[in-house]
Amino acid sequence: MEGHTVQIDPYVGCEHHCLYCYALNGAESDWRQRILIHSDLERRLIEELEGVAPKSIYMGMNSDPYQPIEAVCVLTKSSLIARDVDLFQRIRDPY
């Protein structure tokens, strides 16, 4: 792999459905119907990148790594939401 870049696509599919998307044209499944998430991505990356020399890593070369489904939105009029601030911060930064 020396001299090559590493490509990581956390998803198979993309919710954005860009008209100019080259990856969508060659997709094996209908991305409008289902987006797949690679299971246990962190463990797999650790295993696959072990021993690989440092190099550029492209996130989302074939699909957007920031899918809209990951957004967290809370609509409330209640001030009780303040009690869950620590929970929301863990969602944003789980480590």
Structural class: alpha+beta
How much of the sequence lies in strands comes to 5-15%
* Rg calculated over all Cα atoms: 18 Å
Query: Number of DSSP helices?
Result: 3
CA-based shape = flat
Helix content: 10-25%
Largest sheet: 2 strands, parallel
N/C terminus separation: 30 Å
Count the domains: 1
Low-confidence stretches: none
The average pLDDT score comes to 78
Strand arrangement, major sheet = 1-4
How would you name the oligomeric state of the polypeptide chains in this document? single chain
Strands, total number: 4
Give helix and strand order, one letter per element, not per position. Answer: EEHEHEH
Please render the helix and strand layout as text.
Elements: E1 6-8, E2 11-12, H1 22-25, E3 36-37, H2 41-49, E4 57-59, H3 85-92
Parallel strand pairs: 1-4
Antiparallel strand pairs: 2-3
Outline the structure in words.
The protein has three helices and four strands. With 95 residues, it is α+β, with helices and mostly antiparallel strands. It has one domain (6-92). The strands form two sheets. It has a two-stranded parallel sheet. A two-stranded antiparallel sheet has the order 2-3. The two termini are 30 Å apart.
